[in-house]
Amino acid sequence: MILSLLFLLTTACSSTSETKESEKKESSTVSEKETKDPFAPLPEKVTINLAKSEGDINLNLPEGDTLNDNAWTRFIEEKLQADLNYVWTVKGGDPYTQKLKLAIASNDLPDMFLVGFDEYLELIKNDMIEDLTDTYKIYASDGLKEMYTTDGGKALETLDVDGKIYGISSMSTIDNNSAEVWVRQDWLDKLNLEAPTNLERLKKVTKAFIEQDPDGNGKKDTVGIPGQSTFFKADMLSFDAIFNQNQSFPGYWIKDKSGEVVYGSTTPETKEALRILRDMYAEGLINKEFGAMKSDQASQLIASNKSGIFFGSWWAGWSPLSDSVKNDPSAVWRAYTLKQSEDGPYYAKQERPIGNILVVKKGFSHPEAAIKILNWEVQMQYEDQSIDPYKGASPPVHDNALPINLQLWRADSVLKLHELVVKLSAGEKLDEATYDGPKYLIEDATKVAELWTKGEDWLKQNSDKYGEPLSRVIGVQPLVAEKNIRRVYSEFYGKTKTMEKKWVNLSKLEDTAFMQIVLGNKPLDYFDQFVEEWNKQGGSQITEEVREQLK
Amino acid sequence: MKTRTSLHYHLMLFPGILLLLIFSIYPMFGIVIAFQDFSPAKGFWGSDWVGLDNFRYMLEIPDSKRVFLNTIFIAVMKIIASLVAALTFALLLNELRTRFLKRFIQTIVYLPHFISWVLIGGIVGQMLSLDGVVNQGMKLIGLDPIFFLGDNNWFPFVIVGTDVWKEFGFSAIVFLAALTGINPVLYEAAEIDGASRWQKLRFVTLPAISATIILIATLSLQNVLNAGFEQVFNLYNTLVYESGDIIDTYVYRMGLIESQYELATAVGTLKSIVSLILIYISYQLASKFANYRIF
Amino acid sequence: MVYGKGPFNRIIDGAILVILCVITACSLFPLLHILAISFSDKSAVAAGSVILWPKGINVAAYRAVIEDKAFFMAFWVSVKRVLLGGGIQFVLTILMAYPLSREVHVFRSRNVYMWFVVFTMLFSGGLIPWYMTIRDLGLLDSIWALVLPSAVPVFNVIILMNFFRGIPKELDDSAKMDGAGPWRTLMQIYLPLSLPALATVTLFSIVTHWNSFFDGLILMNNPSNQPLQTYLNQIVVQFNNSSANMTVDEIERMSKLSNQTINSAKILVSMIPILVIYPLLQKYFVSGLTLGSVKE
């Protein structure tokens, strides 16, 4: 009841805003007013060509429904009087990129499709997609617009190219990859060590874990901190925690002390962070092999409990930790933040504020259809779940069955969900009617809280269920508890002219230099040589261009 | 009479040639990208022409020189190693008397040839990790563990080694064929002269198959720029681009993933031209030294 | 071959046998390794403790494969492409190899054709124009896109051509005397004598068609039209998170993707046709793959 009222309210609101719009535009005929309703059908029957990445997942669709023809696609087709047509579908993410690249190169694009940021810029440069600035302003529903306020406007700001927006993106989740230190609490307690919240303790703990046989099997078979070869450009199992606590943000464009934008990999702070890593590597505190490891190989060291300490995001609970617990039920994992001093700031490197971007092919007759599909999806998933034709399906139908699976959710959903779970597992009762946060989270939070209240012993015996509560409760806790958190974004996510030609080489130069320094193959002062070389090979020119574009 | 027969030959070739015209020759219009500042929206004929700029750029960047050198180094090593391994194996197998065992061993050593690199890449990665079987074995005999897949000094040899491992059995077939072709009378004669086993190998077997060996070596010349795309693609990582990036992986990355169509096409075209020259040389060498026509 | 006798020779024989056995064992290792993984428990595999003997033996992976409709659909596409593509390649290989095996004085345009064929093998306009050509012909998403562009296997043509060249010219002459034209000579004299080479090139055709994945990825728009290797490539593809913005959804996918046991089972099942066919044709390799007549 309340929900439907809400629904009425939103439509009412949006129609008033439209009237204003149409008044401004003078030509306010009745039919146009109707089409400007965010939820109105398109003015004529339109065929929309789409592309899709299926993923190797079970969509849990009821018998007879398929990825390309199910209750959700029919729902949208009916609401918009559109005919959705999938011109190509692939299984995974990599093949999607390949097919997309091919579609761009051969100028054979679907009407609307999802792209990454690089392709977004490439498409704009080649004038292949529609400007959606006005379309978004006119047709976006309140629910959709409200969504984009949850990250403080970061996403829309990032999408902006010369004052125009050419696509609608998903938002990154706040703190999704803020680096934490995950540690085996049982080993800490056994060896009587303090939690690794600063560098000194971190080193002490790691040393003890390597030398004092924490797993008690009488063999010296535990290794140092595992990492993967892309150790400063990855989320999980990177060494970001070390860089960040030293206020170094390699790969990001940041403001230096004088307020000028510089490339984070070239700062003195980064040199210092590399020194720390180099020393740790030399002391054996970092796994000797990290330079050749992909993330799943490094994860294996944790899954097999050869290492009891690593840097990872809040979601490490799913993987690798649920495997670790399965292999050794005595494992107790806890997460901490690494800082320079107890009450000093915690620097949390944030992801690029946008994820996939929905764009519309240049020349497509009804660009507003893209916005309207999103309006309905947001409406159905978050605002008024009663209109969802798959409401209550068990197991729930996977989002990828949506006509456009943009994965739009609030940027603060991880933090909000954590708060809800904690409240619920403490026995607090929550009512949809009285809760003033995002209500759609309550259902998920209830499920996680139910699991968490069963206790960790039970969860460890059912280790396939342990991942989510471990991540959402233990993993997020330090981020929520942190009083002095500084979230760091890159100042620039685009691609300048010189970047296009030279960036690949510069990145390679950077990757190799950092790796060689950490491995000790090159002296620390090689860093200065790298910076010089980096500037010479186009870096200084790129810096100029970036500064120019940010003006 | 002659012309009428020729007509039939033309007729036989017609379907194949037609398909090659459609699917190989026609798409070659794409080579124009190498001379353009290519923009997909403008297409192949609408993009701006830049003359030889892309080739100039290719020669400017250190990458292209490196990938050419890597390719040649890896390919030449592969050619030599696989020749030696296949020949040795063929000679060993030839000494075996039990027919059944011979067949059995052949069946198994040919097998890796039929397994894709995707799969082999995964297993090799595991075996060569510091924890892997190889390093554990080295530890047993007191050697320091080695970082095979992440070390620029070792990586090319890993490529060569795994390639030999996958293909030696199958490459041995040509030598086995040559060995079965040796006239038994020669061995009988050697026997009567009281030749030892080693002498028979040295003075009968090897000379008899020397023509084949020379021929195979000559034919391998064509492959000097083919270092094995699928293999390298499945084994390399950013750490060993320095030593492991070859022409084909580079062209693939630039041409599709990095959207540097012009550079990729330029490098690919240069490779084709050099390959054509190599094939011509190897054709001439084979006909001169082995009196053999490749095609 | 004649062998020496005596104890010394025995020792050498023994040593050779041992070396050969070691070599054989090395060749067999990967297959046994994934066989062990496919029968093992998922977490034991994740911990990297399975080498040659399965741990926590079970057939869950195979049960999952059997229930996977997409897998068998892709399997069927591959079977179709092998039959159709293999058939086309077989016919075209013969039709091209025969005229090209003629001497220049018999067939004057022979060298022109030959270098043309070699040229197509070396040069290409790149992936994108190739794709656009096939698209413009309307072949996308059809089985023909998988078999027509690769209808002329140049390498196989050269193998068969060299084999044809090794067939004594006297047979040709006697056929001509009997009044047989080129077609009858090919059918009644050359083909029956070329069984080993035909078996070899057929196997090559089958294996190439069975193993190729990239064309299936590029040219098929609907997953139900994709051949098996394309399907396998997509599910076995490792989750690369170096550039990704991880979302909860992706994390879930990652934990599911790490399912090595099922993937190993799928790989093994996909290898069955090759494992069955190639030992049958193996006996032809040695005579079929000779490089034509090597004159000394």
Q: Main traits of this protein?
A:
heterotrimer; A: 551 residues; alpha+beta; three-stranded antiparallel beta sheet; 22 helices; 12% strand; globular; disordered N terminus; C: 296 residues; mainly alpha; MetI-like fold; flat; disordered C terminus
How would you portray this structure in words?
The complex is a heterotrimer of chains A (551), B (295) and C (296). Chain A has helices at 2-24, 30-35, 71-80, 93-105, 117-125, 133-139, 142-147, 154-159, 185-190, 199-211, 240-245, 268-282, 295-303, 321-327, 368-383, 413-425, 441-453, 456-461, 467-475, 477-481, 497-519, 526-550; strands at residues 46-53, 82-90, 112-115, 160-161, 164-165, 167-171, 180-184, 253-255, 261-263, 309-312, 333-336, 346-349, 354-360, 485-488. Chain A has 551 residues and is of the alpha+beta class. In chain A, the strands form six sheets. A three-stranded antiparallel beta sheet of chain A has the order 3-13-6. Chain A has a three-stranded antiparallel beta sheet with strand order 10-7-11. In chain A, strands 1-2 form a two-stranded parallel ribbon. In chain A, a hairpin with a 5-residue loop joins β8 (253-255) and β9 (261-263). In chain A, α12 (268-282) runs parallel beside α21 (497-519) and α21 (497-519) runs antiparallel to α22 (526-550). By secondary structure, chain B is mainly α. Chain C folds into two domains: 7-58, no CATH class; 62-285, MetI-like (MetI-like fold), CATH 1.10.3720.10. Helix content of chain C is 71%, strand content 0%. Chain C has 15 helices and no strands. The radius of gyration of chain C is 25 Å and the shape is flat. Chain C starts with 6 loop residues before the first helix and ends in an 8-residue tail after the last helix. Classes of the chains: A alpha+beta (551), B mainly alpha (295), C mainly alpha (296). At the B-C interface, α1, α4, α5, α6 and α8 of B face α1, α4, α5, α6 and α8 of C.
Profile the largest sheet of chain A: 3 strands, antiparallel
Q: Largest interface by residue count?
A: B-C, 89 and 91 residues
Distance between the termini of chain B: 26 Å
Reported CATH architecture of the largest domain in chain B: Orthogonal Bundle
Total domain count of chain B: 2
**Spatial ordering of strands, largest sheet of chain B:** 1-2
Strand content of chain B: under 5%
Q: Tell me the radius of gyration of chain A.
A: 25 Å
Strand content of chain A: 5-15%
Multimerization status: heterotrimer
- Roughly how many Å is the radius of gyration of chain B? 24 Å
Q: What string gives the helices and strands of chain B in order?
A: HEHEHHHHHHHHHHHH
